[in-house]
Amino acid sequence: MAQAINKPAAGSHGGHGAGHGGRHEEHHDQEAMKTFGFWLFLITDVILFGTLFATFVVLRLNTDGGPTGAELIELNGIIISTFILLTSSFTSGVSVLEMNKGSKRGLILWLAITALLGAAFIYLEVAEFMHLVHEGATIGTSAYWSAFFTLVGTHGLHVTVGLVWMVALMLQLSRRGITPVTKRKVGIISLYWHFLDVVWIFVFTIVYLMGVM
Amino acid sequence: MLDKLKEFASEFFVTGDPLILGAQVSIGLSLVAIIFALTFFKKWKWLWTEWLTSVDHKKIGIMYIIASLLMLFRGGVDALLMRMQLAAPQLEFLNAEHYNAIFTTHGVIMILFMAMPLMFGLFNIVVPLQIGARDVAFPFLNSLSFWMFFFGAMLFNVSFIIGGSPDAGWLAYPPLSELSGSPGLGQDFYIWGIQISGIGSLATGINFIVTILKMRAPGMKLMQMPMFIWSVLSSCITIIFAFPILTVTLFLLFLDRYLGAHFFTLDGGGNPMMYINLIWMWGHPEVYIVILPAFGIFSEVVSTFSKKKLFGYKSMVFALMSISFFSFFTWAHHFFTMGSGADVNAFFAITTMLIAIPTGVKVFNWLFTMYRGRITFSTPMMWAVAFIPCFVVGGMTGVMLSVAPADFQFHNSYFLIAHFHQVLIGGVVFGYFAGLYYWWPKMFGFRLHEGLGKWAFWFWNIGFYVCFMPQYALGLDGMTRRVNTYDFDMGWQPLNVISTVGAFLMGLAFIFQVWQIAHSIKFYKKEKDGDAWDGRTLEWSIPSPAPLYNFARLPQVRSQDDWWEEKQRKAKGEPAKPLAPLEPIHMPKNSGIPFIMSACWFTAGFGFVWDWKWMIVLGLGGVVVCMLARSFSYDTDYYIPVDEIERTEAALRGTK
Known about the structure:
Chain A has 213 residues and is an all-alpha fold. Chain A has 7 helices and no strands. Mean pLDDT of chain A is 88; it is low at 1-22. By secondary structure, chain B is mainly alpha-helical.
């Protein structure tokens, strides 16, 4: 891939060098580079979640005589929030389609729907955590609950960051419209959003389905 | 009111130790002196616009190197204090607590705040120049990485005068590092100092992978890249897989201490051994992260000073990449004694031994590069040549340690201490010194005094062997690491005295290096030709120091060692490549956000250490504001017009 880019014949070569290509092409290269960088960031995030999953698996039976997940977690709410998050992944995909059609209004609208679904997911997660704390399971109860709250909470924190980011992006889009830069930004956040969806599928499977059912 | 203030101050500052009081006074005085000097010479604005907000990879590189040399000084003082304490039996120069703090900070500082930034400094200065690029892929992120490192290091270092040093060892094994074992604040400084700078390292890893894969000069194929670039790539790939594990591990330890979680505690179902596994899953790749670029430097230096193409280019690439792969499968050899069972130990023993193979391949490649070469023994080459025997011995003792049954004897003894110092000093430090001497003219436009450099070289080398060879014997005699004193009847005194003498010889060597730099600045002689060593790679084709935009025209690369080939063609009288017309150069604008954002992280970290909620909110809030400010700013770059490039080039090349 890199070699193809570096063939002089291709006329462009990334970075801050103004070369043979026009400024437009160069801009395109820079945005592509940022997207590539984000993919690498996602690798690091995979490792981060991988470590948390490994921790959870190691500690899954260490309830120290206290409550277990199966006793306290109500799966119905989790299934609802799973569907909400999966739907938000779909709507974020629709927003990218709208962007490719060049519809600024459609893009912002579908991003807003995605953000609302994300907010609903966070609301349900906070409600679940409050329920658990109320039932007497906090992060300090046992190793199992430490690992549970940390893994699920880290995912929730990621979603929250994504929400703030999405709102900021909607403001930028309404002000600047669809440009190469905002296009790349939308592309990156939708990558991020799909990634969090995939992570959630693992959380749902390992923490909830295998751990609770 | 005054009493309250006094009470606060006695908790806030570390008190009651004359050594630390001295340090506090001298730090306070130097701070006052720096502030006074900056104000008196009206340099605040210069500092801010030229350095603190700079996104120029060359300036960031220089700042990394300055910071790392300061850290080398502090880590070195720690080492000398330890050696003084151990010079004779039953000394009471340092008490046990103080000794614990010092070996902890020595380890953390030397690996994370000396080796890493020195490495990043060289990455920054060399990588864009060697691949013919004008900056790194993400200059803003690069500046952020530096400041995250810097403020993380400051947060860690401040602990020895404010709040108290960490003293649970450089990797802070629980349960000792838990609240039950270390109730003081030192461990919290440890967590946040390393966490903040670790995020910076992670970003650097991403940044340089993209730079290398996407920003090479037109025509430069992957298999034509200089070997240093390959080593940076393999190191950065290792970084992005290893550092997230560190981030998580420290975060979990933080949760244990701050929120009472039970990841690594002895009660509540926690598992301390999981921490040891996790930290070494990062920790072992980490030592390869710092050694791989040193291998790259040796390849450049050996090839340049032997006037020969590097022997076995492809096998070198393969060796680098396979080391970065295998580095993830050896972590358990750090705790064979933990009791994982024979099968697990056998697996990790074999993977560890496997790493010796690609390393051996490299050693032979360097030797064959030198074979029948026209060798000049300038200072960079001397470090490279001294490295080979040193690293071979260090590597062999490593293989001895990897034999799991034998390791039960060597484990945690001075044999181990001698081994890893031999590979880290003989490999990493010698390598980075070679790189520093080699690229110094490129960084600053003048050479370092060779004679003083040779004095420093010999003191370092002799000091190294005098210091660490006796430690192998001490380890076999049963002396364990981290003991702050020993009895007369152990018979360890003679070797310890020798070892201490060696440590001071290395201290002397450092003074020679400082003298060398000061002397070379005083008798500054501009290096007129950009090609200080008759080099082979692209960085030597441009003036020293390189102009802001590095290359007025991006080079068209045709082969490996392109600059050398170009010079050969020129000598043969072949016509030079036709010069393309100049075009405006696209550059990133300076930004204050990285500095401010990292300062906010520092504030948040400091708040977490003291559990001051207002400070945590202030710091983290500042981080969010900085991120949003960056996201909303679209005016982040500019163009250097052609006539300005022409003027700069004429001024630089005109002096030729």
